[in-house]
Structure formats: C-alpha cells, structure tokens
C-alpha cells in the first residue's frame, strides 16, 4: 500500500491543475490554451484519484 500511495502522491503533484496552469503560463501559452490545459489536467487528476481509491480498496480486500 505504501508503494501505491507514494506513486499516487508523486503523480498527483505532477498532474495538479494549478501546476499545469503555472507551467503553461511560464511557457507563454495564451488564455484559451491555459484554460483547456487546466480543464484537461483537472479531469486527469480526478481519474488519478479514482484509480488510487480503487487500488486502495483492492489492496484492502486482499488483506
């Protein structure tokens, strides 16, 4: 479980919508691109959270 949590935390920091928005701003992206990137990152971030919850539940079921 610790390995799964460690991977989740690392990935969630990389994929966080705020981080994506900051990176796009630094790269000089226009507002529409930034908004689109943040929306995409938000969806991926939520999917990552759901995948973590499923993995956690599967590990707990195994005992």
Describe what you observe in this structure.
- By secondary structure, the chain is mainly alpha-helical.
- The chain has one domain (2-62).
- 89% of the residues lie in helices and 0% in strands.
- The chain has helices spanning 2-15, 17-26, 31-62.
- The model has no long low-confidence stretch (mean pLDDT 92).
The number of helical runs is 3
Biggest sheet descriptor: none
Helix/strand class: mainly alpha
What is the alpha-carbon Rg in Å? 15 Å
| H/E topology pattern | HHH
In whole angstroms, the N-to-C terminal distance is 11 Å
The tally of domains stands at: 1
Per-chain topology:
Elements: H1 2-15, H2 17-26, H3 31-62
Helix pairs in contact: 1-3, 2-3
Q: What labels would you give this structure?
A:
J domain-containing protein, single chain, J_dom_sf, 0% strand, mainly alpha, elongated, 63 residues
Q: Could you give a quick summary of the protein structure above?
A:
The protein is mainly α and 63 residues long. It is built from three helices and no strands.
């Amino acid at each position: 479980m610790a390995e799964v949590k460690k991977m989740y935390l690392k990935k969630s920091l990389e994929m966080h919508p705020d981080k994506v928005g900051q990176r796009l701003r630094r790269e000089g992206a226009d507002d529409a691109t930034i908004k689109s990137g943040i929306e995409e990152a938000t969806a991926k971030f939520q999917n990552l959270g759901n995948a973590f919850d499923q993995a956690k539940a599967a590990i707990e079921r195994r005992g």
